[in-house]
Specification:
The protein has 134 residues and is of the alpha+beta class. Helices cover 40% and strands 27% of the residues. The strands form two sheets. It has a three-stranded antiparallel β-sheet with strand order 1-2-3, with no helix packed on it.
Length: 134
């Protein structure tokens, strides 16, 4: 039976096994359950984002990619121009995960231009009104 000791703001967590040998797992390699995981920080961030319905929908709809390199979290994706505040919330959550020492965010913003859509709709409305008159 393993006993986990989670020290505050330390870089390693000691796992004491029944045989009294101490195995050290770096915080960046520990998942939410305390087990060793190669991408532990990325999974902790993904789990934290899925706890909030709005951030979960934002992550899945915008196609945000969460990765990790050592103790650095990498966020990539394309976001709409008005979504910078949501990106700021996600980066704040990432910085508050224990074990994260660095954050890299690579986002390209795009503007949603719906003018072609409105032109097409107005064309079809005008066409349907012309048919209704005749």
């Amino acid at each position: 039976m393993a006993r986990f000791v989670f020290p505050q703001r330390l870089h390693r967590c000691e796992v004491y096994l029944a045989s009294t040998k101490a195995v050290s797992i770096p915080l960046e390699r520990m998942n939410t359950k305390g087990d060793y995981d190669q991408s532990g920080l990325a999974k902790k961030l993904a789990t934290a984002l899925e706890q909030d319905a709005i951030l979960s929908a934002f992550k899945s709809n915008q196609g945000i990619y969460v990765a990790q390199k050592g103790s650095k979290i990498i966020l990539k994706g394309r976001v709409r121009e008005g979504d910078q505040s949501t990106i700021q919330i996600i980066t704040n959550i990432a910085y508050n995960i224990e074990g994260v020492t660095e954050l890299e965010s690579i986002f390209s913003a795009f503007v949603v231009d719906l003018s072609w859509f409105y032109q097409r709709i107005s064309f079809y409305l005008a066409l349907s009104q012309a048919w209704a008159i005749s």
